[in-house]
């Protein structure tokens, strides 16, 4: 029986388009960050908190990835930021071709930062380069401290990790030290930001790290 590996050609095409996306962003001096998380981890809340903290200093746009609906894009637009909605129609992740089409409708010369909210999934988004300058993983505390053990790849490829919803820690049996040890065993260089996006706790530290990415591409 002949075995045909279809994944590699698909990823190769995706990577070429991702490189073109990144070159296009670099030429315009725009930083793009890909936020990955499971559904309900608080990606949109983190984005809104980031906009509130940085929106007065940086020109921000958001690319919203969802299987269906535009609920999150509408929340972002209500915050006064341009949002481009991508509905994947069932696909569990965004791909670089989708991002290219979103970049086509954005005025890159009028932006400093693009935040991509990937489809809620801890597996599929890890394989696809979008042309971003950094992938960031968000875990909400109620999901449990064992997720780095169950989904190691997403922690390994992330340049930063956000632990969200720390304000509800008293209601959950979450071993913070075990979680951080597991993350550092997989990715010793990624900072871990503990925050509550809705309460505003820890947002300043996350945004200070994010700001460090922007001048390098101005």
Topology:
Elements: H1 7-28, E1 31-37, H2 43-54, E2 60-66, H3 71-78, E3 82-87, H4 96-104, E4 113-117, E5 134-140, H5 147-150, H6 152-156, E6 160-164, H7 176-186, E7 192-195, H8 203-213
Parallel strand pairs: 1-4, 1-5, 2-3, 2-4, 5-6, 6-7
Helix pairs in contact: 1-4, 2-8
Helix-strand topology string: HEHEHEHEEHHEHEH
The CA-CA distance between the termini, in Å, is: 53 Å
CATH topology: Rossmann fold
Q: Structural class of the secondary structure composition?
A: alpha/beta
Shape: globular
Count of spatially separate domains = 1
CATH-level-4 superfamily name: P-loop containing nucleotide triphosphate hydrolases
Number of strands: 7
How would you explain this protein's 3D organization?
The radius of gyration is 17 Å and the shape is globular. The chain is 38% helix and 19% strand. The longest helix has 22 residues, at 7-28. It is α/β, with parallel strands linked by helices and 218 residues long. It contains eight helices and seven strands, in the order αβαβαβαββααβαβα. It has helices spanning 7-28, 43-54, 71-78, 96-104, 147-150, 152-156, 176-186, 203-213, and strands at residues 31-37, 60-66, 82-87, 113-117, 134-140, 160-164, 192-195. Strands 3-2-4-1-5-6-7 form a seven-stranded parallel beta sheet, with helices on both faces. The model has no long low-confidence stretch (mean pLDDT 92). β2 (60-66), α3 and β3 form a beta-alpha-beta unit. It has one domain: 3-Layer(aba) Sandwich (Rossmann fold).
């Amino acid at each position: 029986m002949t075995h045909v590996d279809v994944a590699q050609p698909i990823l190769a095409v995706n990577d070429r388009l991702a490189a073109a996306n990144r070159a296009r962003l670099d030429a315009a001096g725009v930083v793009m960050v890909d936020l990955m998380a499971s559904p309900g981890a608080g990606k949109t809340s983190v984005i809104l908190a980031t906009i509130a903290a940085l929106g007065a200093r940086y020109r921000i746009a958001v690319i919203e990835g969802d299987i269906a609906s535009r609920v999150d894009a509408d929340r972002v637009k209500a915050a006064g930021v341009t949002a481009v909605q991508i509905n994947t129609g069932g696909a569990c992740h965004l791909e670089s071709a989708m991002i290219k089409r979103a970049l086509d409708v954005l005025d890159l010369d009028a932006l400093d930062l693009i935040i991509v909210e990937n489809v809620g999934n801890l597996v599929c988004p890890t394989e696809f380069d979008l042309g971003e300058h950094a992938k960031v993983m968000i875990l909400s505390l109620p999901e449990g401290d064992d997720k780095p053990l169950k989904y190691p790849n997403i922690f390994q490829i992330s340049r930063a990790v956000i632990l969200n919803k720390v304000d509800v820690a008293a209601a959950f049996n979450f071993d913070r030290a075990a979680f951080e040890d597991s993350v550092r065993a997989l990715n010793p260089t990624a900072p871990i930001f503990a925050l509550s996006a809705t309460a505003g706790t820890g947002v300043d530290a996350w945004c200070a790290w994010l700001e460090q990415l922007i001048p390098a591409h101005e």
